[in-house]
Amino acid sequence: MIRCIVLFPKESALTSKMQSQIALRVLKENFGHDGFRGPQGAIIDRTLAGQHSLVIMPTGMGKSLCFQIPAIALAEDQATERGLTLVISPLIALMKDQVDALVRKGVSATFINSSLDRDQREHRYRGIGDGKWDLLYVTPERFQKQDFLEVLGKRSIKLLAIDEAHCISQWGHDFRPDYTRVGDIRKSLGSPTTIALTATATIEVQNDIAYQLGLQLDRIDDSDSDPDSMRLYHQGIDRPNLSLEVDEVWDDDMKYEQIVKMRSEISGPGIVYFTLIRKLVEFSDRLLENGVQHLVYHGDLPRNRRRQLQEQFMGGDNFLVLATNAFGMGIDKEDIRYVLHADLPGSMESYYQEIGRAGRDGKPSKCLLLYDQRDLATQMEFIRWSNPDAMFYQRVFDFLDNDLEQCNAFGLEWLREKLHHRQKHDRRLETALSMLIRWDVFSGTIEPLQLQRLSDFPSEKFDSDFIDNKLKRDQEKLLAIVQYAKHEGDRKDFLNAYFGL
After folding, report:
1. pTM for this structure?
2. One-character DSSP codes across 267-319
3. Strand 338-341 and strand 365-371: pairing?
4. Which of 157, 115, 113 is nearest to 134 (CA)?
5. The pLDDT value given to residue 218
6. List of long-range contacts for 454-463, beta carbons under 8 Å, 24+ apart
7. Which residue of 59, 337, 435, 494 is surrounded by the most CB atoms within 10 Å?
8. 262 vs 19, 239, 266, 268, 351, CA distance in Å?
9. What span, in angstroms and rounded, lies between the C-alpha atoms of 472 and 235?
10. What angle do CA 244, 245, 249 make, to 5 degrees?
11. From the CB of residue 395, how many other CB atoms can be counted at a distance below 10 Å?
């Protein structure tokens, strides 16, 4: 459980004009830009005024500056003690890259996550307690650590930034159970100024993000006096330089031909996305046999190898990479000339995030989706895995409750074998364990499997109607991507309609 550390930041002595001047200076000195783009300036001014915002901005359009610049400006306010901006992010693998980039720009930033050893973690804890650093990147899981909470109690939390904010919403495309703690985390910090940021969110998800944070979403510019008002800044989703195309295919040979054609016709870096690692490897072997050089990136590769591949792609000007959707999160490469989906994505949100990695330099880039009806079966299976029924949750709980010591001793794969028998690729178990940990039924880790029981099975949290409703919503998301693939009109209009614009 999260213990309250209620902090009350002192009111800044800086006027709004002075804060705006500081923000512009930080933009120039630290980030090398002469002026703000789109709504960035208004968002930063609102944040420095102590008001909350939900920012929906296309990938690569400068969302991070909307909290990084206020963090630096707030830290420079000598009228108050040196404040700290907390950045909650789900991306452990990319925190170091993001912090290293900030440090190179002269920004005082660090991160704390499970990649640190004990000495490194304790060193950073001491630094935080001593007033060091202006930005701190963490995952929501870190707030379950009592020693971390005690360190935060020594600092004034001026700003809470929530990256990938769609993860908060149970209706979001990338829902993370631990992100549902963010509302409680915010209260424990004294409800500081909050900015939530994402590239994609439907109207339903937008409302849910604000609700989960204990705020009221304001779509009209008329409620600055309400301390619980969260202003929506929606820059839209249209990227004029991206051409959106769909080709229907019927087998892997047609997919292969399209990949080779794209590679030969378009000069510059490109990404081909696959759903399954097995299928990605098959296409990679076939390309190599025919002399088509490329990189391969997926989650089964060692972390050091993934980092090496990412750096190789970032440093080259004509690389093709075959990848699962893990590739691209945090990639800030401006000149990606094409993104090809060899398999059907699971939702419009995932699709839009992935094509958003193309053409960040504003130059023409091609986004091609290959629609193969056979891919629907794979996505339906993924939906089933991410939506176990109530009986399955109860079964997992009973198995753990009756034989927890043996489960911890033999591990996740042993438990999967006991539950699924021959269905070794079934991933319902990971979903069930994540949710049981989220609702404080168990504490501990999934990999390695080390759990401790905290409470009885909460039947109300795994209500059949609720689970069935979520399953239906996920199926509707998959239906939307099929409708997009079959759409005969302007596909950008389809995107706008889907996201409520």
Report:
1. 0.82
2. -S-EEEE-S-HHHHHHHHHHHHHTT---EEE-TTS-HHHHHHHHHHHHH-SS-
3. parallel
4. 157
5. 87
6. 457/393, 457/394, 457/397, 457/401, 459/390, 461/435, 462/390, 462/393, 462/394, 462/435, 463/390
7. 59
8. 48, 20, 6, 11, 19
9. 29
10. 150
11. 14
Nearest to 251 by CA among 397, 370, 363: 370
Parallel, antiparallel or unpaired: strands 450-453 and 442-445: antiparallel
CB atoms within 10 A of CB 391: 10
Of 111, 117, 83, the closest CA to residue 99 belongs to 111
- The per-residue pLDDT for 8 is 39
pLDDT for 1 equals 43
Q: How far apart are CA 283 and CA 59, in angstroms?
A: 28
As a whole number of angstroms, the distance between CA 350 and CA 174 comes to: 8
AA identity, residue 352: Y
* Buried-state track 34-67, b at ≥16 Cβ within 10 A, e below 16: eebeebbbebbbbbbeebbbbbbbbbbbbbbbbb
Please report, for residues 230, 251, 396, the alpha-carbon distance to residue 222 in angstroms, rounded to integers and kept in the order given. Answer: 11, 54, 49
What amino acid is encoded at 242 in this protein? L
69 residue type, one letter = I
Q: What is the DSSP letter of 462?
A: G
Helix (H) or strand (E) segment spanning residue 352:
helix 348-355
Supply the pLDDT for residue 329. 64
Q: Could you give the angle at which helices 40-48 and 16-31 cross, rounded to 10 degrees? A: 130
Q: What are phi and psi of 477, to 5 degrees?
A: -65, -40
Contact 42, 233 (CB under 8 A): yes
Asked whether 106 and 177 are in contact (CB, 8 A), the reply is no
Sorted by sequence, the CB contacts under 8 Å of residue 17 that are 6+ apart come out as none
DSSP string, 155-211: SEEEEEEESSGGGG-TTSTT--GGGGGHHHHHHHTT--EEEEEES---HHHHHHHHH
User: Which residues, given as ranges, of the chain have pLDDT below 70?
Assistant: 1-15, 77-81, 93, 172-174, 221-225, 328-331, 421-424
Which tokens go with 321?
């990479």
